[in-house]
Amino acid sequence: MVIDMNEAQVRTLEQVRQVLAGTQALEFAGAQDDQGRYAWIESVLRRFDYRHLARAQRGPVLAYLQRLSGYSRAQVTRLVSRWAAGKRLAKQYRAPEHAFARRYTDADVALLAEVDRAMNTLSGPATACVLRRQRDVFGDARFERLGSISVGHLYNLRNSAPYRAQRVVLTKTRPTKAITIGVRKAPTPEGRPGFVRIDSVHQGDWDGTKGLYHINAVDCVTQWEVVASVQTISEVHLLPVIEHMLAQFPFEILGFHADNGSEYVNRRVAEMLEKLRAEFTRSRPRRSNDNGLAETKNGAVVRKVFGYAHIPQRHAKRFNTFCLEFLNPFLNFHPMPIRYRRGGPQEARPHQARVPAPRRDDAIGQTGQSTQGTNVSARRRDAARIASARPRAHRYTGRRRTQRGAQ
């Protein structure tokens, strides 16, 4: 026991409070064993005459014992209660006088470690069979006890401290095989059309029933957009739709960028892009801005057209037909009118909004890229037919429109 005698100068409760508050310096080295700590606790209790202290005065003494002894508050309370009852502070637990005899000795544990070292640590049943054969077939007297060991207790011996002290198996950390599908980087079109960004939009749930999905693909340079609807995003339904969407782009596909969803990052999609000789890139995890172009088109186009309400999956084919025949030509050929608020030009000027088709022609003219045989004139006629059926934008005059019956 090593206790600095300067601690004995603390004899009043005021000094105890100063020590607890840290205002009084105290040099103290606690005992390393429990017997020394118990003797020091007894001396402190006798010094302060703990039995005659008031209830409010016992708290600082208990905190003082807890601080310097290193015991928990519950352990200090038990020791003080035992001392107040007139009992000597000593350990109440010890090894039983009539303990169970050990069946397997340290020599057996060392022999098991030697067998595991020679056999490269087989499974429990296989090792038990080896030990039994050493005793019964080869007559080795050293395996007299180990020959009848159970598989469960064999693992107990392997987990024991004597076994681990003789045989420690160290294995290097095995690196996990990273996903090699796609390259995690941003596409670099450098003014060339054909670098497509793609994303999926879910059309809500209803009482636990999944709705259909919209697939939105946008070209980085020309903003050419292709929207499709699919029943589910499994490979069975999604892969044919992606192939058909890529075929609708009027230029060669050079790049394909998606997020980390398994509907895009899989072997089937990678094989399809490899046939097209297109670069497969993907976003960083938890970085939705990496695919920001597709995300903004999801809100500006898909959500404005289809909304947020639940659409059953059985209508996926009809919605996909609508996207193919009407929505996609409208997005790529029809100029959206630009409306101005009060204080600006008082009319809508649709000719100022530039659609993807002219940008596509300019980009193809600059790069000399082919259009893969796309009938652009037919699509322009479809777009003109859709535009004629669309209500014209009213001229904004700044005055509120009223119904005739209200006048």
Q: How would you sum up this structure, described in words?
A:
The protein has 407 residues and is of the alpha/beta class. The chain has three domains: 5-84, no CATH class; 106-166, no CATH class; 181-396, Nucleotidyltransferase, domain 5 (2-Layer Sandwich). The protein contains 14 helices and eight strands. It has helices at residues 13-21, 34-47, 55-69, 73-84, 106-119, 124-136, 151-158, 161-166, 235-248, 267-276, 292-306, 316-333, 356-367, 376-389, and strands spanning 183-184, 195-202, 205-206, 209-210, 213-219, 225-230, 255-258, 279-282. A six-stranded mixed β-sheet has the order 1-8-7-2-5-6, with helices on both faces. The protein has a two-stranded antiparallel ribbon with strand order 3-4. Strand 7, helix 10 and strand 8 form a beta-alpha-beta unit. Helix 1 packs across helix 3 (55-69). The protein starts with 12 loop residues before the first helix and ends in an 18-residue tail after the last helix.
